[in-house]
Design brief:
By secondary structure, the protein is mainly α. The chain contains 7 helices and 2 strands, in the order αααββαααα. A two-stranded antiparallel sheet has the order 1-2. Strand 1 and strand 2 (64-67) form a beta hairpin. The chain is elongated and about 65 Å long.
């Protein structure tokens, strides 16, 4: 499977953005601090997410990013695709040329797994994740930690 940190970080950042949407546009610096993801890496991810029409940006003081669509319409597979990630588990990238003379013995197995992963990620929206109590608890802990750090400095 080829779901790398790029896909994972994109989903994490989008979920952070969704959790804080009531605060207006959210800066990448805020997401970076809460999620401990490099700001330069987030800039690269959000350029792709913006091209994928999942987020829009506002410039200037008080600027930042916001999610374009209602949260129940933003599914995880869309986020992963927007940052050019693949959930293809086949060795051949779905080309059916994994063996010298065509498909390998297990091609159908891995292709089926890829379909299952795609269906799973397509069936979960950002709103579904926000509705999970455990996700809200983790977000609250992260927010409290950031507030603590800011008050100490």
């Amino acid at each position: 499977m080829k779901l790398t940190t790029r896909g994972r970080y994109a989903v994490t950042a989008m979920l952070d953005l969704a959790l804080h949407k009531e605060q207006g546009p959210i800066s990448l610096a805020d997401i970076s601090e809460r999620q401990e993801i490099s700001l330069s890496y987030l800039e690269q991810l959000f350029a792709r997410l913006r091209r994928g029409k999942l987020v829009e940006s506002t410039r200037g003081p008080g600027g930042g990013y916001r999610i374009v669509s209602p949260l129940d319409q933003v599914v995880i597979s869309d986020i992963v695709r927007a940052v050019n990630e693949s959930v293809d588990t086949t060795q051949c990238g779905g080309q059916k040329n994994c063996h010298q003379h065509g498909r390998c013995l297990t091609h159908d197995l891995w292709e089926g797994l890829s379909e299952q992963i795609e269906n799973f990620l397509s069936g979960i929206s950002l709103q579904d994740l926000i509705d999970r109590e455990q996700v809200r608890k983790v977000a609250e802990r992260q927010d409290n930690l950031v507030h603590f750090r800011q008050n100490v400095n």
